Amino acid sequence: MGFVGKLKNTVIGKFLRNNPKKSIAVAVLLIAYYFCLPKQLFNVPTATVVESEEGLLLGAQIASDGQWRFPKVDSIPKKFEHCLLQFEDAHFYKHFGFNPVSIAKAIGQNIKAGKTVRGGSTITQQVIRLARKGKSRSYAEKFIELIWATRLEFRYSKEEILKMYASNAPYGGNVVGLEVASWRYFGLKSHQLSWAETATLAVLPNAPSLIYPGKNQQRLLVKRNKLLRKLLANGIINKTTYDLALLEELPQKPYALPQNAQHLVTHLSKKHKGERVVSTIKAPLQASVNAVVQKHYSHLKQNQVYNAAVLVLDVNTRKVLAYVGNTKTDKNHQKDVDMVQANRSTGSTIKPLLYTAMLDAGELLPNMLVADIPTQIAGYTPQNFNEDFSGAVEAKKALARSLNIPAVRLLQSYGLQKFRDQLDLFNLKGINKSADHYGLTLILGGAESSLWDLCKTYASMASTVNHFNTTSSEYFTKEFAEPVLKANETVDFGKKSTEKTIFDAASIYLTFEAMKEVNRPEGQESWEFYDSSKPIAWKTGTSFGNKDAWAIGATKNYVVGVWVGNADGEGRPNVTGVTSAAPILFDVFNVLPKTSWFLKPLDEFTEIDVCSNSGYLATPNCPTKKISIPAKQNYVKACPYHKLVHLDAKQQFQVNTSCELLENMVTKPWFVLPPIQEFYYKKTNVTYKTLPDFRNDCKTENAKVMEFIYPKSGAKITLPKNFEGETNELVLKIAHSKSKTKVFWYVDDRFVKQTATFHEIAILPKPGVHKITVVDEVGNDAVIWITILE
Question: Strand 68-69 relative to strand 175-176: parallel, antiparallel, unpaired?
């Protein structure tokens, strides 16, 4: 016989057969009882709460209804549980939602007093009352609360019901829930509260509108102390604890919630509104970085610079360790703008990417000389920050010194479109326009990016080197991944591959080696001589008009990024990457653990011979040295600057067969730069030897020995006027490879002036096209055409 058959023979079965209408009514009541409790009891907005990795509160954003109501707590402190049960519901773990004895006593006392003097509600009933907030306090409502309370007991455990109470109990004003009340009234987490503090919070929800910290102190004190006596009487606390608890003062006014990473809270609330987020932030580090920013802000604002941001990433996990979105300025200076996420002019911060790209493509060598001379390309005239020229400079030193002219010339050589396409691989979200839109200014700050994206890029490059060394010389397919902000998230680096992700490890390593040599800000110039020094690959950037100052540094384990400026875009004098952002960068690195330098990715290197003087591939005519370069096809040409020259026996003059016998000639290689490069190069390179002149009795072919420095042929020039309204003169300047040679100047074939040693003149040409000619005393000449605009 089955279950149904057995049921028919029972008393219940017989009742159902004999009373069908009552059976239906009972069934309806049971179904109604089952579904009477809403699936979601508390459908109210909650605050966005962000905690550190250690579980400390970093900041919170108030709920959309204007209440400080944190998301449901995961657990409640034992102290609070003891206090709450002793004060509200001593039989909580014994009843099924209501306590008939308490209800009967409450009804009797209230009838006798003629008013409500005692409540008989259990904690479970109070949870229901909180969920049905706003309903009338009638007996019918009391009955509904009782029914719901029993249903709540069937659905949830006692522990869950306590959590609901602790999360939704009112604490006066717009403070809702134990966690918020702990912070607002004592500035601590609920688990850190003393017995006296916990007892205070246990009695507050009983009458939050009447008893409020700072008011009605005596009534609050009486309630607290009464609860403490009960705890003592029931053996929950001892006499010493009780006596000490009585001495503790009551809270006088609410504390402000912590705001240690307020911009991070705002950023996370966009995707996690109303949630509790355990972030990757290290609370002690965040506090230290906040202090560093505040210290520098006090100096920066004296120059009317009001905003700054700092981001710290863990290279290996890609976790965000510290996030300072702005200074603690005021609303008039955009204190709420998150400058970690804001797109700003990049300045020179993407120069390392071009350097790496050219090394990776085999189009650049670290010691290769690149031109640093007055340059004009399609009407664009880049200038170095110091408005000076080196003539020629090693590529790695050009990067270390952040020279603009070499960077522009290298970008033109590498290919603007090719580099612009590569930038898309880094997902720099602010760089979203075409190569034609940016032009060559792309490398000098013509584009915009955020501190977030730039730090992400530097961290990805650093971990590329790390991963290559910790695997079997392999790369990860998703190396350039987004950083993570949530503690329970990990970065998916993808699969291992023998193919590079974007750049090879050797090219990145050489870039970091060059960046390590950047001169540090004032006070840290001799960093490498101290045992505690930290080798850092770092780069600064300053945007046009001194609107943005950047400093980004990478070590084997950390990347630190700093932005300084005004959020409204106002530029200020002396706001530069070196003077404004770099000091913050190194102060932040000083609070980070010391790390070793990157391991050299040996499997990606090969050795070659290069010219010692020029850094180009070696030829038989130049002294050589071995260097390590990325192991790939190399497109750098052989050294163009060394040539064999024939000298007389005393090596004072050049000679040839027209004036000297072969057996009397001394043949040797000579390092010779083009005239303009030589003009500037020899000013700072005292070992550079100018090629000797030909002896007077020798016949020579005209060689290119002089070149215009300014202007360039085809230039269109507008002559400005001075304060008196007079038109300023145009200064013409050439470089001549032979010192003290006389040069004769002609404008439109009319002789103007003769110069020697210093070859420059000032003229005042009329609007129109003009021919400028220079001829030296031995017949060498150079010609340019310029247009003077009205």
Answer: parallel
Phi/psi of residue 377, each to 5°?
A: -125, 115
> pLDDT tens, 74-120?
889 999 999 999 998 888 888 887 766 666 665 566 666 555 544 56
Written as six digits, the tokens of 432 are 């979203």
Cβ neighbours of residue 729 under 8 Å, at least 6 residues apart? 719, 762, 763, 764
H-helix or E-strand spanning residue 788 = strand 781-789
Tokens of 772: 């400028």
Bridge partner list, 730:
763
Cβ neighbours for 754, distance < 8 A, ≥ 6 positions apart: 742, 743, 744, 745
Q: What share of the chain is helix, strand, coil (3-state, %, to 5)?
A: 35, 20, 45
Cα–Cα distance measured from residue 782 to residue 760, given in angstroms and rounded to the nearest whole number: 14
Locate 510 and state its tokens.
Answer: 């050489």
Kindly state the tokens that stand for 93: 């773990």
CB 705 within 8 A of CB 781: no
Axis crossing angle, helix 404-414 with helix 416-423, rounded to the nearest 10? 90
Task: Specify which residues 786 forms β-bridges with.
Answer: 770
For 234-282, where are the alpha helices, taking DSSP H only? 239-247, 262-272
Q: Are 267 and 281 in contact (CB under 8 A)?
A: no
Question: What's the confidence (pLDDT) of residue 10?
Answer: 61
Q: In this structure, is the dihedral angle defined by the CA atoms of residues 263, 269, 274 and 279, taken in order, positive or negative?
A: negative
Cis peptide bond prior to 205, omega within 30° of 0? no
- Six token digits for residue 447: 């584009």
Task: Tell me how far apart the alpha carbons of residues 169 and 203 are, in angstroms, rounded to a whole number.
Answer: 11
β-bridge pairing 781-789 and 716-718: parallel
Confidence (pLDDT) at 3: 44
Task: Judge contact between 58 and 279, C-beta under 8 A.
Answer: yes
The tokens for 501 are 């992700």
pTM, two decimals, is 0.84
- E-strand ranges in 330-476 read 343-345, 369-372, 391-394, 448-450, 475-476
Residues 144-154: pLDDT tens digits?
A: 778 878 888 88
* Structure tokens belonging to residue 629: 């370069």
* DSSP 3-state of 603: helix
Question: Are 411 and 404 in contact, with CB atoms under 8 Å apart?
Answer: no
DSSP sequence for 98-156 = --HHHHHHHHHHHHHHTS-------HHHHHHHHHTTT----HHHHHHHHHHHHHHHHHS
Q: Of 351, 674, 397, 411, which is closest to residue 514 (Cα–Cα)?
A: 397
Beta strand 448-450 with 548-554 is unpaired
In angstroms, the CA 590 to CA 582 distance is 12
Contact between 610 and 617 under an 8 Å Cβ cutoff? The reply is yes
Structure tokens at 423: 């930038």
Distance between CA atoms of residues 94 and 92, nearest Å: 6
Give, to the nearest 10 degrees, the angle between helix 78-88 and helix 123-131: 90
Closest CA to 668 of 650, 683, 685, 681: 650
Please say whether the dihedral angle defined by the alpha carbons of residues 512, 513, 519 and 522, taken in this order, is positive or negative.
positive
How far is 716 from 726, CA to CA, in rounded Å?
Answer: 20
Closest by CA to 789, choosing from 768, 773, 775, is 768
Structure tokens at 700: 């020579």
Q: What are 244's two structure tokens? A: 């000490």
The two structure tokens encoding residue 512: 């970091």
Positions in the chain short of pLDDT 70: 1-19, 21-36, 99-120, 134-139, 208-214, 519-533, 701-703, 739
Query: What's the confidence (pLDDT) of residue 209?
Result: 64
pLDDT reported for residue 98: 73
